[in-house]
Amino acid sequence: IVIVPRDVGHLRAEVEGRTADVLHYPGADVHPLVLASPLERIPAVADHLVRQTPDGVVVDVLADGTLDTDGLADELGRALRSAGLPDPHVSVRRVSAIARDAATGKRRQIVPLDAVDHGSNP
Known about the structure:
With about 120 residues, this protein is of the alpha/beta class.
């Protein structure tokens, strides 16, 4: 949070978000909520990791119970199209674990292409 003094009136607080999680494609910028919302609506999805590809995403899903990976891929593709990506390629993979950073124990849920290209750890 950044406190911004004003010449007149009250102080204003601005929240600086994690803009690094926005996926940038030619002609479209996709906010992380575009993909997180469909994933969070499915009760079986316990956790997920989205990796940007040049023309879409690869999504690793940790799930309890039954999960329709093809149906989820279709739903995520529709979400990407509605965000402006004309022909997204979406792959959903069910995984048994999602890796975390060994030093911090943290991980990102969205890994933009530029982070992957520079060898950044999710």
